[in-house]
């Protein structure tokens, strides 16, 4: 439940606002402060999703409170409450970082709309902060084989552009890694990268997940909610397993690509988005088009640049590099002594049929690190990595 702090010195106004926010809309928890000093201390000691703050107050006025909040917890949106004579000041607070202002006496619809919009903004800011931290992770493609060298070269050329990219290849080959590397090397690397696994989301919810929804759009839609396209604004959205997306959702994605606009489920209001789209699939989309399960026009919108990630069996010369990379990483994660792999062990691993590709190889390396000797040898591989 969103938590709101109301800072207002007039008790009558506080009662009205609390009644509107709690009785008219039972989804908010409201705490009160009778002046700016008390309110500022409460901000230091508690987490709030929104602050409603009067402008004219004793001890510490609303402008001072706003400036203090922006230093203490800048992610909290602040909505100013202005009397008629405070209107110019209220407008000026927008320049200082206030989300919006409402006038006294408060209009119910205006207040609730402002509160909903401010809370949506807070949710997006929190999500973007989380995603930017994830973007900070270093993604690296391990391998020196010809197919991997070609992919690296293509990424270097494509990443600085806004060209849409379609990544194809079997499960477990590293399509997600390619997508992250594209984003990391792009001009959008400072923005969020939002991942959507289209195969993991029920078809009836995929549109809401991608584009958001408004309150009442369907049974469980008890509040407005921003979608993944909005969360990715200024960055990249990665549509993994796009071949599993429903035709109705495909139509909306096509519109988003054509017009750089989306609309939330249940709303006819357009929202402009600035998003680079990277998609991936393990399916043959040409065959899916023939079977009328995938839109041909969407395919051509997505496949500006095609990157095919090869199965591990087609890049066996990379296996020793991958094994050593995973071994170092896994020993650090498990907190165990570093282990090496003998030449015979590496040679045997190169001969295996890797139907699960890189994902399967990593699992096998982890098993060998845990169960094998100080130096993993050929016998360990035969014992613990057998199919």
Automatic annotation (TrEMBL):
InterPro entries: AAA+_ATPase, AAA_lid_NorR, CheY-like_superfamily, P-loop_NTPase, Sig_transdc_resp-reg_receiver, Sigma_54_int, Sigma_54_int_dom_ATP-bd_2. Residues 3-119 form the Response regulatory domain. The keyword Protease does not apply. GO terms for biological process: phosphorelay signal transduction system; regulation of DNA-templated transcription. CDD domains: AAA. Residues 141-370 form the Sigma-54 factor interaction domain. Keywords: ATP-binding, Nucleotide-binding, Phosphoprotein, Transcription, Transcription regulation, Two-component regulatory system. The keyword Phosphoprotein applies. The modification 4-aspartylphosphate is found at residue 54. SUPFAM superfamilies: CheY-like (SSF52172), P-loop containing nucleoside triphosphate hydrolases (SSF52540). One of its GO terms (molecular function) is ATP binding. This is Fis family transcriptional regulator. It comes from Salinimicrobium marinum.
């Amino acid at each position: 439940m969103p938590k709101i702090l109301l800072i207002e010195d007039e008790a009558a106004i506080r009662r009205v606002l609390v009644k509107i926010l709690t009785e008219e809309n039972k989804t908010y928890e409201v705490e009160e402060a009778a002046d700016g000093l008390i309110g500022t201390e409460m901000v230091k000691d508690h987490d709030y999703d929104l602050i409603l703050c009067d402008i004219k107050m004793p001890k510490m006025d609303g402008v001072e409170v706003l400036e203090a909040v922006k230093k203490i917890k800048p992610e909290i949106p602040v909505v100013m409450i202005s009397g008629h004579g405070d209107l110019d000041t209220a407008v000026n607070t927008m320049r200082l970082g206030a989300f919006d202002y409402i006038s006294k006496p408060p209009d119910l619809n205006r207040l609730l709309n402002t509160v909903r919009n401010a809370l949506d903004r807070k949710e997006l800011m929190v999500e973007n902060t989380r995603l930017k931290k994830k973007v900070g992770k270093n993604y690296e493609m391990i391998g020196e084989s010809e197919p991997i060298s070609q992919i690296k070269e293509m990424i270097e050329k494509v990443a600085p552009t806004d060209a849409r990219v379609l990544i194809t290849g079997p499960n477990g080959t590293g399509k997600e890694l390619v997508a992250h590397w594209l984003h990391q090397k792009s001009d959008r690397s400072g923005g969020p990268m939002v991942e959507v696994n289209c195969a993991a989301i029920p078809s009836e919810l995929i549109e809401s997940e991608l584009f958001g929804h408004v309150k009442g759009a369907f049974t469980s839609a008890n509040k407005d909610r921003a979608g993944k396209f909005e969360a990715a604004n200024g960055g990249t959205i990665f549509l993994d397993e796009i071949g599993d997306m429903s035709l109705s959702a495909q139509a909306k994605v096509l519109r988003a690509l054509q017009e750089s606009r989306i609309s939330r489920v249940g709303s006819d209001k357009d929202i402009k988005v600035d998003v680079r789209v990277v998609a991936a699939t393990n399916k043959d989309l040409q065959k899916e088009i023939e079977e009328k399960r995938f839109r041909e026009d969407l395919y051509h919108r997505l496949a500006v640049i095609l990157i095919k990630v090869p199965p591990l069996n087609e890049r066996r010369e990379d296996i020793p590099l991958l094994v050593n990379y995973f071994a170092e990483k896994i020993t650090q994660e498990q907190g165990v002594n570093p282990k090496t792999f003998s030449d015979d062990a590496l040679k045997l691993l190169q001969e295996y049929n890797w139907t699960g590709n890189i994902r399967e190889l990593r699992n096998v390396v982890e098993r060998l690190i845990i169960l094998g000797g100080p130096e993993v040898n050929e016998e360990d591989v035969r014992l613990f990595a057998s199919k």
